[in-house]
Amino acid sequence: MLTKFFQRISGFGRAVSNFCHRIPVLREFLAWRRRHRKTTIALIFLIAHVVGALTSVRAVMQTRTPQGTIAWVVSLNTFPYVAVPAYWVFGGSKFEAYVAARRNDLAETGQATKDYAKELERLNLLTDADSVRGRLLQSLTGLPATRGNDIELLIDGAATFKSIFDGLREAKEYVLAQFYIIRDPGIGQEFKAALTACAARGVRVYLLYDDMGSSDLPDRYLRDLEAAGVTVKGFNTLNENLGRSQLNFRNHRKTVIVDGRTAWVGGINVGDEYLGKDPERGEWRDTFVRMRGPVVQSVQLTFEEDWHWAAKEVLSLNRIPEAAPGGVSREMASLPSGPADPFETCTLFHLHLINAAQKRLWIASPYFVPDEQFLSALHLAALRGVDVRVMVPETTDSALANLSGWSFVEDLSKSGIRFYRYQKGFMHQKVMLVDDETCTVGTANFDNRSFRLNFELTIAVFDRSFSGQVAQMLERDLSNSRLVGVQEVKEKGFWWHFGMRSARIMSPVQ
Q1: Catalytic residue among 259, 341, 371, 463
Q2: Is there a domain that residue 339 lies in?
Q3: Nearest to 410 by CA among 314, 497, 347, 281
Q4: Average pLDDT over the chain, rounded to an integer
Q5: How many structural domains is the chain composed of?
Q6: CB within 8 Å of 167: residues ≥ 6 apart
Q7: Is 490 a catalytic residue?
Q8: Could you tell me the pLDDT band of residue 94, with boundaries at 50, 70 and 90?
């Protein structure tokens, strides 16, 4: 079979060559190419390196971190043939036109945030705004921590989708849904049916997806939703008015909001793999939360900003916060973050939590690629006696992240930090536990992309009871993990270590 295939290819090549030799202009061009082949190759080589050097100047001026700058400069000057196109597609994290446009867009929706803050004060749902944490949250996001909330921990895909679908059936006014990845078959069809059913009974439904993450979603899927009355928009980071395509800023948020009263946030997308049905990944370990109370309005404001960016439309929504039913009152905050923020919101908040830890700091993330400031903060936490544990999956879908993650084992172990690799399938949750009364669940991975480039959403809970539930969940996960020692890393071969170190050098641009 292969022999016949190559014979046909070879025959086709000879036919093309014979055809070209019959045409005088093409015959002369082929003869010139043979005479000047070495010169042509040298010229292409020179041009590639000149372009790489010029692009590295742009990288020096625009890349946010010294580590990222070094990684890009080395790549652009060493392997310009690959690095230059990669930089112009994925680099330039300070894409000024994009950032300026996004900030202008946020200014147009800012009044809703101000009205929300006034209502919280009127209803006495604000927590202590004068505390260190309160001032930090207000400064970073403009969204304060609130009391009067309730939250439910949803472990894995089956529990998450059941809770969301139950909530959709109870929707009376509107549904806001946003996912990074939406796939067509399986649970994607159930999701489409649930949204269609909402629209059929007169509920307004708005669906937002990320163009990059959902690039495989067929147009037919979207047309079916629109025909059923669902309003669908892509986040559209490839805005034609911004001068050039920019694939680096992705909306990684996963959110569902019903009537401004209930919200779901976490790490799960709409796809069968999140239910453990992917034969290559096996079981899928993930975490979502369901919330009631004024924090829902904070989540809704983030969706409104994203929707306005995608659709240039201000939605008519319920904007009156109310305490969760049943008298439960947990202190919570919603922390949206993205590349247009004046500060690196996600980075600073996570650093704050690490620096605040006194007894325990447990981190679960599918991608653990910290930069030097996080490594220093983790070491300091361990050196002051904090029980620091990091849990990642045994393997990931990113070879670079997987290799670079191994490189931190030896470094972290110097201060007593323990590194675990989850064994029971693929762990995709993004959870942090600090001491006994603070935890986070959200969409942000522990890497450069989530901290600086993606639009993410983190839910912070300052409550001993709920943090206890998260602790029990993580203890079960740790029991399904293996502790990785320094000796295991040292026993790896030379080329594995070379790949590991190379991946770590590239980690700032992952």
Answers
A1: 259
A2: no
A3: 497
A4: 84
A5: 3
A6: 256, 258, 262, 264, 290
A7: no
A8: very low
